[in-house]
Specification:
Length: 543
Protein backbone atom coordinates (compact mmCIF):
# COMPACT_ATOMS: atom_id res chain seq x y z
CA UNK A 1 0.00 0.00 0.00
CA UNK A 2 2.97 2.41 0.35
CA UNK A 3 4.91 1.69 -2.79
CA UNK A 4 7.72 -0.76 -2.17
CA UNK A 5 8.11 0.12 1.50
CA UNK A 6 5.45 -2.27 2.79
CA UNK A 7 6.75 -5.15 0.69
CA UNK A 8 10.42 -4.73 1.56
CA UNK A 9 10.14 -3.86 5.20
CA UNK A 10 7.24 -5.91 6.61
CA UNK A 11 9.00 -7.98 9.26
CA UNK A 12 11.83 -5.54 9.74
CA UNK A 13 9.43 -2.75 10.76
CA UNK A 14 7.24 -4.92 12.95
CA UNK A 15 10.13 -6.11 15.06
CA UNK A 16 11.15 -2.64 16.18
CA UNK A 17 7.66 -1.57 17.24
CA UNK A 18 7.83 -3.56 20.45
CA UNK A 19 11.05 -1.87 21.46
CA UNK A 20 9.58 1.39 22.73
CA UNK A 21 11.06 1.25 26.21
CA UNK A 22 14.53 0.04 27.14
CA UNK A 23 13.62 -1.78 30.35
CA UNK A 24 12.28 -5.11 29.07
CA UNK A 25 11.05 -6.26 32.49
CA UNK A 26 8.45 -3.52 32.59
CA UNK A 27 7.85 -3.23 28.85
CA UNK A 28 4.53 -5.10 28.67
CA UNK A 29 3.14 -3.21 31.66
CA UNK A 30 4.21 0.16 30.32
CA UNK A 31 2.83 -0.37 26.85
CA UNK A 32 -0.51 -1.45 28.32
CA UNK A 33 -0.73 1.48 30.70
CA UNK A 34 0.01 3.91 27.91
CA UNK A 35 -2.70 2.36 25.75
CA UNK A 36 -0.06 1.35 23.23
CA UNK A 37 -0.71 -2.38 23.20
CA UNK A 38 0.51 -3.53 19.80
CA UNK A 39 -1.73 -5.47 17.42
CA UNK A 40 -0.74 -7.63 14.47
CA UNK A 41 0.03 -4.78 12.13
CA UNK A 42 1.33 -6.58 9.11
CA UNK A 43 0.61 -10.09 7.89
CA UNK A 44 3.38 -12.66 7.45
CA UNK A 45 5.59 -11.70 10.40
CA UNK A 46 5.49 -14.71 12.72
CA UNK A 47 7.62 -13.22 15.49
CA UNK A 48 5.48 -10.12 15.94
CA UNK A 49 3.30 -11.44 18.75
CA UNK A 50 5.97 -13.22 20.76
CA UNK A 51 5.94 -12.41 24.45
CA UNK A 52 9.59 -11.40 24.55
CA UNK A 53 10.97 -9.65 21.49
CA UNK A 54 14.48 -10.37 20.22
CA UNK A 55 17.30 -7.96 20.88
CA UNK A 56 16.36 -5.16 18.51
CA UNK A 57 17.19 -2.47 21.08
CA UNK A 58 17.28 1.11 19.91
CA UNK A 59 21.04 1.16 20.41
CA UNK A 60 21.36 -1.43 17.62
CA UNK A 61 18.33 -0.91 15.40
CA UNK A 62 18.55 2.61 13.98
CA UNK A 63 21.37 2.30 11.50
CA UNK A 64 20.41 3.88 8.17
CA UNK A 65 17.69 5.25 5.91
CA UNK A 66 16.23 1.78 5.37
CA UNK A 67 15.60 1.45 9.11
CA UNK A 68 13.82 4.81 9.14
CA UNK A 69 11.62 3.88 6.19
CA UNK A 70 10.83 0.58 7.86
CA UNK A 71 9.75 2.47 10.93
CA UNK A 72 7.65 4.86 8.88
CA UNK A 73 5.80 1.94 7.27
CA UNK A 74 4.59 1.04 10.77
CA UNK A 75 3.46 4.63 11.39
CA UNK A 76 1.51 4.64 8.11
CA UNK A 77 0.09 1.23 8.99
CA UNK A 78 -2.05 2.79 11.73
CA UNK A 79 -3.71 5.30 9.41
CA UNK A 80 -7.46 5.37 9.96
CA UNK A 81 -7.65 1.93 11.55
CA UNK A 82 -6.33 0.11 8.49
CA UNK A 83 -4.54 -2.39 10.73
CA UNK A 84 -7.00 -5.15 9.78
CA UNK A 85 -9.43 -5.97 6.99
CA UNK A 86 -12.42 -5.39 9.27
CA UNK A 87 -11.19 -2.55 11.46
CA UNK A 88 -11.66 0.21 8.87
CA UNK A 89 -15.39 -0.51 8.94
CA UNK A 90 -15.82 -1.70 12.52
CA UNK A 91 -13.81 1.09 14.13
CA UNK A 92 -13.28 4.05 11.78
CA UNK A 93 -16.71 4.02 10.14
CA UNK A 94 -18.58 3.10 13.30
CA UNK A 95 -17.01 6.01 15.18
CA UNK A 96 -17.00 8.59 12.39
CA UNK A 97 -20.05 7.71 10.27
CA UNK A 98 -22.56 6.23 12.68
CA UNK A 99 -22.89 9.55 14.53
CA UNK A 100 -23.87 11.45 11.36
CA UNK A 101 -27.26 12.02 9.79
CA UNK A 102 -26.17 10.87 6.32
CA UNK A 103 -26.86 7.23 7.19
CA UNK A 104 -29.46 4.95 8.70
CA UNK A 105 -28.27 1.82 10.44
CA UNK A 106 -28.95 -1.39 8.56
CA UNK A 107 -30.61 -4.46 10.02
CA UNK A 108 -27.35 -6.24 10.85
CA UNK A 109 -26.22 -3.45 13.18
CA UNK A 110 -28.76 -4.73 15.70
CA UNK A 111 -26.53 -7.78 16.13
CA UNK A 112 -23.70 -5.56 17.40
CA UNK A 113 -24.90 -3.50 20.39
CA UNK A 114 -21.72 -1.45 20.67
CA UNK A 115 -22.06 -0.26 17.07
CA UNK A 116 -25.72 0.52 17.61
CA UNK A 117 -24.75 2.52 20.70
CA UNK A 118 -22.74 4.94 18.53
CA UNK A 119 -25.72 5.38 16.23
CA UNK A 120 -28.18 5.88 19.08
CA UNK A 121 -25.83 7.94 21.28
CA UNK A 122 -26.19 5.46 24.13
CA UNK A 123 -22.49 4.61 24.28
CA UNK A 124 -20.33 4.91 27.38
CA UNK A 125 -16.60 5.04 28.02
CA UNK A 126 -16.27 1.25 27.78
CA UNK A 127 -17.43 1.10 24.15
CA UNK A 128 -14.94 -1.08 22.26
CA UNK A 129 -15.00 0.88 18.98
CA UNK A 130 -14.30 4.13 20.83
CA UNK A 131 -11.48 2.49 22.78
CA UNK A 132 -9.91 0.99 19.66
CA UNK A 133 -10.14 4.32 17.82
CA UNK A 134 -8.34 6.06 20.71
CA UNK A 135 -5.70 3.33 20.98
CA UNK A 136 -5.07 3.20 17.24
CA UNK A 137 -4.28 6.90 17.05
CA UNK A 138 -2.00 6.75 20.07
CA UNK A 139 -0.26 3.71 18.60
CA UNK A 140 0.46 5.76 15.50
CA UNK A 141 1.74 8.64 17.65
CA UNK A 142 3.98 6.30 19.60
CA UNK A 143 5.47 4.84 16.42
CA UNK A 144 6.04 8.35 15.02
CA UNK A 145 7.89 9.34 18.18
CA UNK A 146 10.09 6.26 17.75
CA UNK A 147 10.88 7.23 14.15
CA UNK A 148 11.79 10.79 15.11
CA UNK A 149 14.15 9.39 17.72
CA UNK A 150 15.52 6.98 15.13
CA UNK A 151 16.20 9.73 12.58
CA UNK A 152 18.29 11.57 15.13
CA UNK A 153 20.08 8.33 16.02
CA UNK A 154 20.91 7.61 12.37
CA UNK A 155 22.15 11.13 11.79
CA UNK A 156 24.36 11.17 14.87
CA UNK A 157 25.76 7.64 14.99
CA UNK A 158 24.59 5.70 11.95
CA UNK A 159 24.89 5.88 8.18
CA UNK A 160 24.03 9.54 7.85
CA UNK A 161 21.33 10.46 5.33
CA UNK A 162 21.39 13.35 2.89
CA UNK A 163 19.80 16.62 3.98
CA UNK A 164 16.88 16.07 1.58
CA UNK A 165 16.24 12.55 2.87
CA UNK A 166 16.43 13.73 6.47
CA UNK A 167 13.99 16.57 5.78
CA UNK A 168 11.52 14.44 3.87
CA UNK A 169 11.49 11.60 6.38
CA UNK A 170 11.30 13.97 9.35
CA UNK A 171 8.47 15.81 7.63
CA UNK A 172 6.58 12.55 7.17
CA UNK A 173 6.95 11.58 10.81
CA UNK A 174 5.92 15.06 11.99
CA UNK A 175 2.90 15.09 9.69
CA UNK A 176 1.75 11.66 10.82
CA UNK A 177 2.19 12.53 14.49
CA UNK A 178 0.15 15.68 13.93
CA UNK A 179 -2.44 13.78 11.88
CA UNK A 180 -3.10 11.30 14.68
CA UNK A 181 -3.45 14.13 17.19
CA UNK A 182 -5.77 15.89 14.72
CA UNK A 183 -8.00 12.82 14.54
CA UNK A 184 -8.15 12.73 18.32
CA UNK A 185 -8.92 16.42 18.90
CA UNK A 186 -11.70 16.25 16.32
CA UNK A 187 -13.46 13.55 18.35
CA UNK A 188 -12.46 14.36 21.95
CA UNK A 189 -12.83 17.67 23.74
CA UNK A 190 -9.44 17.26 25.40
CA UNK A 191 -6.59 14.90 24.56
CA UNK A 192 -3.14 13.94 25.78
CA UNK A 193 -0.30 15.43 23.76
CA UNK A 194 2.30 12.70 23.37
CA UNK A 195 5.42 14.10 21.76
CA UNK A 196 8.20 12.18 23.50
CA UNK A 197 10.12 9.02 22.82
CA UNK A 198 9.32 6.76 25.76
CA UNK A 199 12.17 5.60 27.97
CA UNK A 200 10.34 5.05 31.25
CA UNK A 201 6.93 4.39 32.74
CA UNK A 202 6.59 7.82 34.31
CA UNK A 203 6.24 9.40 30.84
CA UNK A 204 3.11 7.40 30.17
CA UNK A 205 1.22 9.09 33.02
CA UNK A 206 0.35 12.37 31.38
CA UNK A 207 -2.55 14.77 31.91
CA UNK A 208 -5.03 16.06 29.37
CA UNK A 209 -4.02 19.25 27.60
CA UNK A 210 -6.33 22.16 27.03
CA UNK A 211 -7.96 22.30 23.65
CA UNK A 212 -5.95 25.39 22.75
CA UNK A 213 -2.68 23.67 23.70
CA UNK A 214 -3.57 20.69 21.53
CA UNK A 215 -4.46 22.85 18.54
CA UNK A 216 -1.27 24.89 18.96
CA UNK A 217 0.79 21.70 18.94
CA UNK A 218 -0.99 20.28 15.87
CA UNK A 219 -0.73 23.48 13.87
CA UNK A 220 2.96 23.92 14.69
CA UNK A 221 3.70 20.32 13.66
CA UNK A 222 1.77 20.58 10.40
CA UNK A 223 3.40 23.88 9.48
CA UNK A 224 6.86 22.47 10.13
CA UNK A 225 6.05 19.29 8.21
CA UNK A 226 4.83 21.35 5.25
CA UNK A 227 8.16 23.18 5.10
CA UNK A 228 10.08 19.87 4.99
CA UNK A 229 7.99 17.57 2.80
CA UNK A 230 8.41 17.22 -0.98
CA UNK A 231 5.91 18.77 -3.35
CA UNK A 232 5.42 15.53 -5.30
CA UNK A 233 6.05 11.80 -5.01
CA UNK A 234 6.89 9.22 -7.70
CA UNK A 235 4.28 6.54 -8.37
CA UNK A 236 6.36 4.02 -6.41
CA UNK A 237 5.69 6.13 -3.28
CA UNK A 238 1.93 6.42 -3.73
CA UNK A 239 0.23 7.10 -0.43
CA UNK A 240 3.16 8.88 1.19
CA UNK A 241 2.49 12.45 2.27
CA UNK A 242 3.50 15.67 0.55
CA UNK A 243 3.39 19.39 1.24
CA UNK A 244 -0.19 19.39 -0.02
CA UNK A 245 -1.33 17.04 2.73
CA UNK A 246 0.35 19.07 5.47
CA UNK A 247 -1.08 22.39 4.33
CA UNK A 248 -4.55 20.94 3.65
CA UNK A 249 -4.85 19.70 7.22
CA UNK A 250 -3.26 22.87 8.58
CA UNK A 251 -5.95 24.87 6.82
CA UNK A 252 -8.66 22.56 8.18
CA UNK A 253 -7.25 22.95 11.69
CA UNK A 254 -7.27 26.75 11.49
CA UNK A 255 -10.76 26.79 9.95
CA UNK A 256 -12.03 24.70 12.86
CA UNK A 257 -10.28 26.95 15.36
CA UNK A 258 -11.83 30.04 13.78
CA UNK A 259 -15.24 28.81 14.92
CA UNK A 260 -14.07 27.52 18.30
CA UNK A 261 -12.02 30.56 19.34
CA UNK A 262 -14.22 33.45 18.28
CA UNK A 263 -11.90 36.10 19.73
CA UNK A 264 -9.28 35.04 17.18
CA UNK A 265 -11.62 34.22 14.31
CA UNK A 266 -10.17 36.74 11.84
CA UNK A 267 -6.61 35.65 12.63
CA UNK A 268 -7.34 31.95 12.19
CA UNK A 269 -9.33 32.49 9.01
CA UNK A 270 -6.32 34.33 7.60
CA UNK A 271 -4.00 31.50 8.60
CA UNK A 272 -6.38 28.95 7.06
CA UNK A 273 -6.44 30.91 3.80
CA UNK A 274 -2.64 31.10 3.74
CA UNK A 275 -2.36 27.34 4.28
CA UNK A 276 -4.88 26.49 1.58
CA UNK A 277 -3.08 28.78 -0.86
CA UNK A 278 0.00 26.57 -0.48
CA UNK A 279 -1.90 23.51 -1.72
CA UNK A 280 -0.90 23.54 -5.37
CA UNK A 281 -0.47 21.12 -8.24
CA UNK A 282 -3.86 19.38 -7.92
CA UNK A 283 -6.95 19.34 -10.16
CA UNK A 284 -10.49 18.10 -9.80
CA UNK A 285 -11.16 14.67 -11.30
CA UNK A 286 -14.01 14.79 -13.83
CA UNK A 287 -15.17 11.21 -13.19
CA UNK A 288 -16.31 11.56 -9.59
CA UNK A 289 -17.23 7.92 -8.97
CA UNK A 290 -13.91 6.60 -10.26
CA UNK A 291 -12.13 7.90 -7.16
CA UNK A 292 -13.98 5.38 -4.98
CA UNK A 293 -14.42 2.21 -7.06
CA UNK A 294 -10.76 1.26 -7.46
CA UNK A 295 -10.39 2.36 -11.08
CA UNK A 296 -8.65 5.70 -10.47
CA UNK A 297 -6.42 5.40 -7.43
CA UNK A 298 -4.20 8.32 -6.38
CA UNK A 299 -5.55 10.50 -9.16
CA UNK A 300 -4.75 14.15 -9.83
CA UNK A 301 -7.28 15.24 -7.18
CA UNK A 302 -5.97 12.97 -4.44
CA UNK A 303 -3.94 14.69 -1.71
CA UNK A 304 -3.95 11.87 0.84
CA UNK A 305 -5.44 8.45 0.21
CA UNK A 306 -5.74 5.34 2.36
CA UNK A 307 -3.99 2.65 0.35
CA UNK A 308 -5.33 -0.85 -0.35
CA UNK A 309 -4.57 -3.33 -3.10
CA UNK A 310 -6.01 -6.50 -4.59
CA UNK A 311 -2.48 -7.81 -5.05
CA UNK A 312 -1.29 -10.43 -2.58
CA UNK A 313 2.24 -10.68 -3.99
CA UNK A 314 4.94 -11.57 -1.47
CA UNK A 315 2.31 -12.46 1.11
CA UNK A 316 0.95 -8.95 1.55
CA UNK A 317 -2.74 -8.50 2.33
CA UNK A 318 -4.14 -4.99 2.31
CA UNK A 319 -7.89 -5.22 1.65
CA UNK A 320 -11.11 -4.31 3.44
CA UNK A 321 -14.79 -5.28 3.57
CA UNK A 322 -16.55 -1.92 3.41
CA UNK A 323 -18.24 -2.89 0.12
CA UNK A 324 -20.35 -5.43 2.03
CA UNK A 325 -21.25 -2.80 4.63
CA UNK A 326 -22.92 -0.50 2.12
CA UNK A 327 -24.44 -3.11 -0.22
CA UNK A 328 -28.07 -4.24 0.22
CA UNK A 329 -29.06 -7.75 1.21
CA UNK A 330 -30.27 -8.39 -2.32
CA UNK A 331 -26.62 -8.18 -3.39
CA UNK A 332 -25.58 -10.44 -0.50
CA UNK A 333 -24.45 -7.31 1.29
CA UNK A 334 -24.34 -7.18 5.07
CA UNK A 335 -26.73 -4.21 5.35
CA UNK A 336 -24.84 -2.11 7.89
CA UNK A 337 -24.95 1.42 6.43
CA UNK A 338 -27.99 2.67 4.53
CA UNK A 339 -28.61 6.03 2.86
CA UNK A 340 -30.72 8.26 5.12
CA UNK A 341 -33.85 9.92 3.72
CA UNK A 342 -32.24 13.29 4.34
CA UNK A 343 -29.20 12.30 2.29
CA UNK A 344 -31.30 10.86 -0.53
CA UNK A 345 -33.36 14.06 -0.74
CA UNK A 346 -30.25 16.22 -0.62
CA UNK A 347 -28.73 14.42 -3.59
CA UNK A 348 -31.82 15.01 -5.72
CA UNK A 349 -33.05 18.35 -4.35
CA UNK A 350 -31.90 20.46 -7.32
CA UNK A 351 -33.72 18.24 -9.79
CA UNK A 352 -32.64 17.22 -13.27
CA UNK A 353 -30.50 20.24 -14.06
CA UNK A 354 -27.19 18.44 -14.68
CA UNK A 355 -25.83 17.65 -18.13
CA UNK A 356 -28.01 15.23 -20.11
CA UNK A 357 -31.12 15.98 -18.03
CA UNK A 358 -29.62 14.08 -15.10
CA UNK A 359 -29.45 14.65 -11.37
CA UNK A 360 -26.24 15.82 -9.74
CA UNK A 361 -23.57 13.44 -11.05
CA UNK A 362 -22.35 12.88 -7.50
CA UNK A 363 -25.64 11.12 -6.75
CA UNK A 364 -24.81 8.45 -9.32
CA UNK A 365 -21.25 8.15 -8.06
CA UNK A 366 -22.37 7.76 -4.45
CA UNK A 367 -25.71 5.96 -4.50
CA UNK A 368 -27.81 3.32 -6.29
CA UNK A 369 -31.41 4.48 -6.61
CA UNK A 370 -34.55 4.18 -8.73
CA UNK A 371 -33.62 6.17 -11.82
CA UNK A 372 -33.75 5.42 -15.56
CA UNK A 373 -29.94 5.56 -15.58
CA UNK A 374 -29.90 2.26 -13.69
CA UNK A 375 -32.46 0.41 -15.79
CA UNK A 376 -30.34 -0.02 -18.88
CA UNK A 377 -26.66 -0.56 -19.46
CA UNK A 378 -25.71 -2.45 -16.32
CA UNK A 379 -24.72 0.50 -14.18
CA UNK A 380 -24.79 -1.47 -10.93
CA UNK A 381 -21.70 -3.66 -11.30
CA UNK A 382 -22.99 -5.00 -14.60
CA UNK A 383 -26.64 -5.28 -13.52
CA UNK A 384 -29.69 -3.07 -13.93
CA UNK A 385 -31.76 -1.60 -11.12
CA UNK A 386 -34.58 -4.13 -11.32
CA UNK A 387 -32.03 -6.96 -11.24
CA UNK A 388 -31.07 -5.80 -7.75
CA UNK A 389 -34.23 -4.27 -6.29
CA UNK A 390 -37.80 -5.59 -6.34
CA UNK A 391 -40.95 -5.24 -4.23
CA UNK A 392 -39.43 -7.44 -1.54
CA UNK A 393 -36.26 -5.42 -1.13
CA UNK A 394 -35.69 -3.96 2.32
CA UNK A 395 -34.48 -0.70 0.74
CA UNK A 396 -34.98 1.13 -2.53
CA UNK A 397 -31.61 2.87 -2.53
CA UNK A 398 -28.17 2.21 -1.06
CA UNK A 399 -24.70 3.64 -1.07
CA UNK A 400 -22.45 2.81 -3.98
CA UNK A 401 -19.35 4.59 -2.72
CA UNK A 402 -16.40 2.25 -2.01
CA UNK A 403 -17.93 -0.59 -4.01
CA UNK A 404 -15.64 -1.91 -6.78
CA UNK A 405 -16.49 -1.38 -10.43
CA UNK A 406 -17.25 -5.01 -11.39
CA UNK A 407 -19.26 -7.84 -9.93
CA UNK A 408 -16.29 -10.20 -10.01
CA UNK A 409 -14.34 -7.83 -7.78
CA UNK A 410 -17.34 -7.21 -5.54
CA UNK A 411 -17.98 -10.92 -5.06
CA UNK A 412 -14.57 -11.38 -3.47
CA UNK A 413 -14.60 -11.47 0.32
CA UNK A 414 -12.24 -8.49 0.42
CA UNK A 415 -11.59 -5.59 -1.95
CA UNK A 416 -8.64 -3.30 -2.59
CA UNK A 417 -10.46 -0.04 -3.32
CA UNK A 418 -8.69 3.01 -1.87
CA UNK A 419 -10.33 5.53 0.45
CA UNK A 420 -9.53 9.20 -0.20
CA UNK A 421 -8.81 11.02 3.06
CA UNK A 422 -8.12 14.47 1.62
CA UNK A 423 -9.16 15.59 -1.85
CA UNK A 424 -8.62 18.87 -3.65
CA UNK A 425 -12.38 19.40 -3.66
CA UNK A 426 -12.21 19.61 0.13
CA UNK A 427 -9.53 22.29 -0.07
CA UNK A 428 -11.62 24.31 -2.54
CA UNK A 429 -14.78 24.13 -0.45
CA UNK A 430 -12.99 24.88 2.82
CA UNK A 431 -11.28 27.84 1.16
CA UNK A 432 -14.70 29.00 -0.07
CA UNK A 433 -15.95 28.77 3.51
CA UNK A 434 -13.00 30.87 4.68
CA UNK A 435 -13.72 33.55 2.09
CA UNK A 436 -17.41 33.63 2.97
CA UNK A 437 -16.71 33.88 6.70
CA UNK A 438 -14.32 36.76 5.91
CA UNK A 439 -17.22 38.56 4.25
CA UNK A 440 -16.20 37.87 0.65
CA UNK A 441 -18.85 35.60 -0.87
CA UNK A 442 -17.83 36.82 -4.32
CA UNK A 443 -14.47 35.06 -3.86
CA UNK A 444 -16.16 31.89 -2.64
CA UNK A 445 -18.63 31.48 -5.50
CA UNK A 446 -16.11 30.61 -8.25
CA UNK A 447 -14.65 27.83 -6.09
CA UNK A 448 -18.09 26.40 -5.38
CA UNK A 449 -19.01 26.54 -9.05
CA UNK A 450 -15.78 24.79 -10.04
CA UNK A 451 -16.70 21.81 -7.85
CA UNK A 452 -20.31 21.85 -9.06
CA UNK A 453 -19.28 21.93 -12.70
CA UNK A 454 -16.55 19.30 -12.66
CA UNK A 455 -18.02 16.83 -10.15
CA UNK A 456 -21.74 17.49 -10.34
CA UNK A 457 -21.98 18.44 -14.04
CA UNK A 458 -24.21 21.23 -12.73
CA UNK A 459 -24.79 24.87 -13.67
CA UNK A 460 -23.57 27.69 -11.44
CA UNK A 461 -25.19 28.22 -8.06
CA UNK A 462 -27.87 30.83 -7.63
CA UNK A 463 -27.64 33.61 -5.07
CA UNK A 464 -24.71 35.86 -4.25
CA UNK A 465 -24.97 37.08 -0.68
CA UNK A 466 -23.22 35.61 2.35
CA UNK A 467 -26.26 33.65 3.56
CA UNK A 468 -26.85 32.07 0.15
CA UNK A 469 -23.21 31.08 -0.17
CA UNK A 470 -23.17 29.58 3.32
CA UNK A 471 -26.24 27.48 2.52
CA UNK A 472 -24.67 26.37 -0.76
CA UNK A 473 -21.43 25.35 0.94
CA UNK A 474 -23.40 23.27 3.41
CA UNK A 475 -25.22 21.51 0.57
CA UNK A 476 -22.08 20.98 -1.50
CA UNK A 477 -20.13 19.51 1.39
CA UNK A 478 -22.95 17.09 2.14
CA UNK A 479 -23.27 15.67 -1.38
CA UNK A 480 -19.56 15.90 -2.15
CA UNK A 481 -18.21 14.13 0.93
CA UNK A 482 -20.90 11.69 1.95
CA UNK A 483 -19.33 8.64 3.65
CA UNK A 484 -15.98 10.44 3.73
CA UNK A 485 -16.58 11.13 7.40
CA UNK A 486 -16.58 14.90 7.62
CA UNK A 487 -20.31 15.40 8.19
CA UNK A 488 -20.44 15.18 12.01
CA UNK A 489 -17.47 17.54 12.33
CA UNK A 490 -18.95 19.97 9.79
CA UNK A 491 -22.20 20.12 11.76
CA UNK A 492 -20.34 20.72 15.01
CA UNK A 493 -18.21 23.46 13.42
CA UNK A 494 -21.35 25.21 12.19
CA UNK A 495 -23.17 24.79 15.53
CA UNK A 496 -25.88 22.68 13.89
CA UNK A 497 -25.55 19.30 15.59
CA UNK A 498 -28.67 19.68 17.72
CA UNK A 499 -30.74 20.89 14.78
CA UNK A 500 -29.60 18.11 12.47
CA UNK A 501 -30.02 15.29 14.99
CA UNK A 502 -33.50 16.44 15.96
CA UNK A 503 -34.49 16.60 12.29
CA UNK A 504 -33.13 13.08 11.88
CA UNK A 505 -35.09 11.75 14.83
CA UNK A 506 -31.94 10.93 16.82
CA UNK A 507 -33.60 11.48 20.18
CA UNK A 508 -30.66 10.08 22.14
CA UNK A 509 -28.43 12.98 21.11
CA UNK A 510 -27.55 15.83 23.45
CA UNK A 511 -25.07 18.47 22.29
CA UNK A 512 -23.75 18.95 25.83
CA UNK A 513 -22.97 15.25 26.16
CA UNK A 514 -22.38 13.89 22.66
CA UNK A 515 -20.53 16.59 20.74
CA UNK A 516 -17.37 14.80 21.82
CA UNK A 517 -16.53 11.22 22.78
CA UNK A 518 -15.73 10.07 26.33
CA UNK A 519 -12.16 9.30 27.37
CA UNK A 520 -11.97 5.48 27.34
CA UNK A 521 -12.24 3.94 30.79
CA UNK A 522 -9.04 1.97 30.18
CA UNK A 523 -7.06 5.21 29.80
CA UNK A 524 -8.54 6.67 32.97
CA UNK A 525 -7.85 3.53 34.99
CA UNK A 526 -4.24 3.15 33.85
CA UNK A 527 -3.03 6.73 33.45
CA UNK A 528 -2.20 7.99 36.93
CA UNK A 529 -2.52 11.59 35.76
CA UNK A 530 -6.18 10.96 34.91
CA UNK A 531 -7.26 8.62 37.66
CA UNK A 532 -7.18 11.42 40.24
CA UNK A 533 -9.32 13.83 38.20
CA UNK A 534 -11.88 15.46 40.49
CA UNK A 535 -15.15 13.61 40.34
CA UNK A 536 -17.33 16.33 38.66
CA UNK A 537 -14.70 16.93 35.98
CA UNK A 538 -14.05 13.23 35.57
CA UNK A 539 -17.75 12.55 35.07
CA UNK A 540 -17.87 15.05 32.18
CA UNK A 541 -15.12 13.08 30.42
CA UNK A 542 -16.41 9.56 30.98
CA UNK A 543 -20.20 9.84 30.84
Amino acid sequence: GLGDVYKRQCCRSASYILITIKNKKTMKKIIYIASFLCAALLAGCDDFLTTESPDFSTDKYWRDKADVEAGLSAVYGQLDNRTGSYTVAEVKFVVETFRSDEMVKGQDVNNYPEWAALYGFTYNNENSSIKEYWMNNYNGINYANNVLYGIDKVQTSGEKMSADDENHLTGEALFLRAYYHFKLIMSWEKIIIRNEYLTGESQTHKALSTRTEAWDFICTELDKAGSMLPQDRPSSEAGRVTKGAAYSYLGWAYLTRAYEESDKKAEYLGLAEAAFNKVTGYELESDYGSMFDGTNKNCKESILELQFTNSTADGTFHKHVLHFWVAPGSMSGWDEIRVSDMMYNEFLKEGRIAEGNMYDARAYGSMMFDDPYYYEGGHILGYNYDDIYDENSATRYNYRKYMPSTWSDYAQNYVGTNMPLMRYANVLLMKAEVYNEQGHPEKAIPLINEVRSVHGKLPAMTGSDQAAVKAQIEHERLVEFTLENSRFYDLRRWGKLDEAMKADGRTGFSASTHSFLPIPLMEIQTNLSLIHISEPTRRSYIS
